[in-house]
Design goal:
Number of domains: 2
Order of helices and strands: EEEEEEHEEEEEHHEHEEH
Number of helices: 5
CATH topology of the largest domain: Fusion Protein Consisting Of Minor Coat Protein, Glycine Rich Linker, Tola, And A His Tag, Chain: A, Domain 2
Largest sheet: 6 strands, antiparallel
Mean pLDDT: 80
CATH architecture of the largest domain: 2-Layer Sandwich
Distance between the termini: 37 Å
Shape: globular
Number of strands: 14
Helix content: 10-25%
Length: 221
């Protein structure tokens, strides 16, 4: 089951949270589904929600065209929210999302997917984080063992991480963890200052997160 929360700020400091329902996305392209369906790996906040609607329980039906590189070419709201301006702004942000691409016969392919989502509201939760990111399970496991043996997270991120945060020793700064998929949020919620997760799978990458002590991210940036 894939459960993902998408977050957007409102003036009251409540957050618009969209929870993907049921068993994840479904392909809209018959007759056969691909071997692997897209998985959401990067998201941007949804726009501010109309304050007059904060207490409403909203369910939306989305149709998204995911390119073979995981980018979003188009998105359609099949069940509008009732707020035309919000719908238009939300679709603009959804088109910035990134997915792991669908795979069929060993090759990434573009396709339309459909997903039902429910909107509810939560308070933001910021956490100072660092990340280590790689594309192989073996390397992720090796780095995790080194971390458990006492090797510095910053040094390993600089040496082996594959994303731009490696230049800062993996430091991301304060991150609103509500923007992460639910399974990632659950692991982050377990961390105390200085602790790190085991390797987590996000799309086609393996990530280890470290919760930084307060103030460290400000000194590094």
């Amino acid at each position: 089951m894939m459960v993902v929360s998408i977050v957007g700020h409102v003036m009251t400091r409540l957050l618009v949270v969209v929870v993907f329902l049921l068993s994840g996305c479904t392909s809209l392209q018959p007759p056969e589904a691909p071997e692997t369906l897209p998985q959401l790996v990067y998201q941007v906040p949804l726009p501010p929600w109309p304050t007059s609607a904060v207490d409403r329980d909203i369910t939306l039906d989305l149709k998204i065209y995911v390119n073979s590189d995981g980018s979003v070419r188009d998105a359609v709201l099949l069940t509008p929210s009732g707020f035309r301006n919000w719908d238009a702004s939300a679709l603009q942000e959804i088109r910035k999302w990134r997915f792991s691409p669908a795979v069929d016969r060993g090759k990434p392919i573009p396709l339309w997917i459909r997903q039902t989502v429910r909107i509810h509201f939560e308070v933001p939760m910021f956490m100072p984080l660092a990340e280590f990111v790689c594309t192989g399970a073996a390397l992720a496991d090796s780095v995790y063992r080194l971390l458990k043996s006492g090797e510095p997270f910053e040094l390993l991120a600089k040496q082996f991480s594959v994303v731009t945060s490696r230049e800062r020793g993996g430091v991301l700064g304060k991150v609103d963890v509500r923007t992460f998929p639910a399974e990632i949020r659950r692991e982050l919620a377990k961390l105390r200052d200085g602790e790190f997760t085991g390797p987590l799978v996000l799309g086609q990458r393996y990530i280890i997160y470290k919760r930084l002590a307060r103030g460290i991210e400000a000194r590094v940036n």
